[in-house]
Amino acid sequence: MDNTSDPAAGFAQRVDAMTLARAQAGDMQAFAALYSTFGRPCFNLALRILGNRAQAEDLVQEVFLKMFGVIRSYRGDAPFGSWLKRMAVNATIDQLRRQRHEADVDAEAVFAAQPSRDSGGAAATLDAWSLLQRLPPRARAVLVLHEFEGYTHTELAELFGQSESYSKSILARALKRLNELVVNSAEAAACPSQN
Known about the structure:
By secondary structure, this protein is mainly alpha-helical. It has 9 helices and no strands. It has helices at 17-24, 28-50, 53-70, 80-99, 107-112, 128-133, 137-148, 153-160, 164-190. The longest helix is centred in the last third of the chain and has 27 residues, at 164-190.
């Protein structure tokens, strides 16, 4: 492993060729080094999208088990972290699909199925995490992948098996919902209810 890499760099961390070659040959220590380097970024991505710590932990295990089985197919066309990130994103999208009980293909249905929640009123914190948790899972995934991970609408359309307009609509509605939550929370904080 390149020990000079920044642990905060997430999936952008570099893997030295020797570690990668050893992992591709089945060396468990090399595989453990990859897990040590990329386990946290993978978990953080899964947690932001899925919103559930236990599911994110399970997904990391699933991704690394899959990586162990397919690492020999990695050819180096893209940086290793990008290859692994794509695997993690695909796994989170698959998890969202498994969680879905109805076919919410229509962008309107994504938001209609989960009404806006203001669970804490003025006492609710306005951190990004609590705001993201108030979005429907698919909307949260589109927002996180587009705004934080840099996915284009074309890539999102491919991931979700939908059109680009679907991705754009979900993103616009998610941002609108977040804005409404911030405004409502700010108003509630400014005007505390009188007993």
